[in-house]
Every structure is written in C-alpha cells, then in structure tokens.
UniProtKB/TrEMBL annotation:
It comes from Sinanodonta woodiana (Chinese pond mussel). The chain holds residues 121 to 434 of 434 of the full protein. It is found in: Secreted. This is Peptidase M14 domain-containing protein. GO terms for molecular function: carboxypeptidase activity; metal ion binding; metallopeptidase activity. GO terms for biological process: proteolysis.
Length: 314
C-alpha cells in the first residue's frame, strides 16, 4: 500500500492492518473496537514492546469526521513508522520503551466510505435518524456526541438535518460508545490513570488544540498542556515550515460541546488530550490533494515524536 501518495478505501486500510499485524514480530495486536451503525468493524491496533514494567498508554485516533481524509492517512502512516521504523529513528525505540500505543485509524468507517463514493464533503456518521421522525436526514456528528458536558445548544445542534447534529442523547452512536468505553476501560485509579495522552486527528486549519471545547475556561493544568503543544508545534514547523496554532479549542476556534477530547480529559482522566487539526489553512481545506499527504505526514510525525519524547521525560 502506497501510504505516501494515496488516500485509501476502508477495505484497503483493513487489509493493511492485517498485514501490519502479521509482520510485526508479535508486538502488534489487532482488535475490534466496536461496530459502526452500518455494521462495519472499527479496527484498533495495540503496539506494545515486551517489558516487565507497566507502561502508560497513548491513544491515537483518526477519521471521526468522514471528509477529513488526511486524518486516517496520517494515522496509518505514523502507525507504519512506529511498527516498522523504516528510517531507523532512535526515538521510535525510546518511545516504545515508554509507552503502549492504541491506534484507531478510522473511527467512522461508514462516513468515510460515503465520502469516497457519494459525497466528498460528508462529515457525520450514517445513522438513520428515525427516532426524530427525520428519516430523510442522515447522520450524527460524532464529535458532538460524547458524554461530557454534552449540549446541542453549545456548538452542536438538535436538528437531525444539521451537519453538527449532536444526536438524541450523549453516546447515542455505536462509534461514540466504542471509543468512549474503550478509553474509559483503561482508566486507572492511581496517578490519573494509565492513559497519559489522547490524540484525535482532524483537519483542517493547522491547530494543536487542547480542552476545553465546551467553555472558555482553562483546565487547571493548561500551562502543561500548552507547553507540550508548543514543543509539538515547533517540531512540526521545523520540517516544512507549517505553522500550527496552539491553544484551547474554545479560545482559538469555537465552543463545541461533546467532543472526544473533552471526554478523554474530563471523564476518562487522560491528562494530555489534544485535537490536532492538520493541513491546510484553507486553500484546499478538507479536499487536501494527494501530493500533500507525504509532507503532512512527515511534519505531523515529527510533532508526535517530539511530543512523545517530551512525555517520556515528564
Ligand atoms: O468542530 C470540531 O469537531 C473540530 N473541528 S473540525 O473542523 N475538524 O470539525 C474541533 C473540535 C475541538 N474540540 C472540541 N470542540 N471539543
Ligand atoms: Zn473534524
């Protein structure tokens, strides 16, 4: 699979994940996170080097929003580098000695496929909104559906026809439940839980966002979140000169309640929760051309490496 130059179908991604599992010397375990509304498998991979001490975990997901194709593309590209280390980067070994990774490349496979075959700018999942008598309006915005400060009137919508539809209630969507239950299941009792970081990749705008997304208030540890965000943004900049803005979602973008980032931090106890918004800043927007996949992946990978290295020294 050419990860550098092409966006791939859900089917191609599934077979690539099988390939990774089979060629990773036992350090990769594939599992089913859950199933989508239309019944597709939501795949997940755990990358874990054998070790006697319990490692903290980093969860990475992509493809919550269907049309943001650079997100799954980048997550898969980074997965490949973490597992096979094709450039022999010493940081990869260091990072894997400190952390287990849980990678979910396509959380919304139904929406992703629909955006490939029917409507390039589809954003939501593919729920048939029968409960609200709106059978003609399809889909819930998964990033408004998480069960922390859920509020359709705060950056979401009660209208099933809206692109920002929050759902009838929090966790109404199988994709939301799959991610939320998994993240919550890793929550520990001591020092904030074994999941140290959560990165949910979106596009576009070139931001490295941290909570909260539901209020202009900052979390108490905002200075730490900001500091690590700046380390990441500097590393990104050093590759191709792309500028990423670091800040809290509500303050640098807009208020939007029910996001997975707020859920991870607010409910599942994940300290370092971020929503990176990848390339670009609006020239192509969601329809980022394939010749920008490689540079986008390269810079994002530099950011994630710097982020994980900094976390390993915390
Ligand atoms: O609106 C969103 O869900 C994200 N932007 S996007 O253009 N990819 O749709 C930003 C989400 C930031 N986090 C929260 N508001 N919780
Ligand atoms: Zn998005």
């Amino acid at each position: 699979l050419d990860l550098d130059h092409y966006y791939h179908s859900y089917g191609e991604i599934m077979s690539y994940l099988n390939y990774v599992q089979q060629n990773a010397n036992g350090n990769v375990n594939q599992f089913v996170l859950g199933h989508s509304f239309e019944g597709r498998t939501i795949p997940a991979l755990k990358i874990s080097l054998p070790s006697r001490n319990l490692k903290k975990a980093i969860i990475i997901d992509g493809g919550i929003h269907a049309r943001e194709w650079i997100s799954p593309a980048t997550v898969i590209w980074m997965l490949d580098k973490l597992v096979f280390n094709p450039f022999n980067e010493p940081e990869v070994t260091t990072i894997l000695n400190h952390f287990d990774f849980y990678i979910i490349p396509v959380l919304n496979p139904d929406g992703y496929e629909f955006s490939r075959t029917n409507d390039r700018l589809w954003r939501k999942n593919r729920r048939i909104n029968k409960d609200n008598g709106a059978e003609n309006c399809i889909g819930v915005d998964l990033n408004r559906n998480f069960d922390y400060q859920w509020d359709p009137k705060n950056g979401g919508s009660n209208n099933p026809c809206s692109i920002l539809y929050s759902g009838t209630h929090p966790n109404s969507e199988p994709e939301t439940v799959a991610l939320a239950n998994f993240t919550h299941s890793l929550k520990g009792v001591d020092n904030g839980g074994p999941v140290l970081a959560y990165l949910t990749f979106h596009s576009y705008g070139q931001y490295w966002l941290y909570p909260w997304g539901y209020t202009t208030d900052y979390p108490v540890d905002q200075p730490e979140l900001h500091h690590l965000g700046e380390i990441t943004a500097n590393a990104i900049w050093s590759v191709h000169g792309s500028r990423f803005t670091v800040g809290s979602s509500t303050n640098v973008l807009y208020a939007a309640a029910g996001g997975s980032d707020d859920y991870a931090k607010g409910s599942a106890g994940v300290k370092y929760s971020y929503t990176p918004e990848l390339r670009d800043t609006g020239k192509y927007g969601f329809v980022l051309p394939e010749n920008e996949i490689l540079p986008a992946c390269q810079e994002t990978w530099a950011g994630v490496k710097a982020f994980a290295m900094a976390l390993a020294n915390v």
